[in-house]
Design brief:
single chain; 120 residues; alpha+beta; 4-stranded antiparallel beta sheet; 4 helices; elongated; FolB_dom; dihydroneopterin aldolase activity
């Protein structure tokens, strides 16, 4: 299966379990892999035969900057569900949501969840 990759998309959201996260917000990064057949698009050079990156970005931005979720898992699930419902050509997607500056005591880098979902 071919794939379209959008990586390093950053947004400001208010997701998290701690009240400070919901009040102050923080940076999130989203990376997605969109599984589809790109042969027709490659031969036709027609946008109608592929998945529009700009529309993918807009869907993800609205979710990450929108309704507050407690868990990264819920943010990732919402993204996958909306992407699969929005694009007829999309067969499956891998969604990686990263909390870049988690408010957890200790010294470490970002935390992330990654899910893979397919159309039924």
């Amino acid at each position: 299966m071919d794939k379209i990759i959008l990586s390093g998309m950053q947004f400001y959201g208010y997701h998290g379990l701690f009240p400070e996260e919901n009040k102050l917000g923080q940076r999130f990064q989203v990376n997605v892999e969109l599984y589809t057949n790109l042969k027709k698009a490659g031969e036709s050079d027609n946008m109608e035969d592929s998945i529009h990156y700009g529309h993918v970005y807009d869907i993800i931005r609205k979710i990450v900057e929108g309704e507050v979720k407690n868990l990264l898992e819920a943010v990732a699930e919402h993204i996958a569900k909306d992407l699969l419902a929005s694009f007829e050509l999309l067969q499956a997607c891998r969604v990686n949501v990263v909390k870049l500056d988690p408010p957890i005591p200790g010294h470490f880098g970002p935390v992330a969840v990654e899910i893979y979902r397919e159309k039924l």
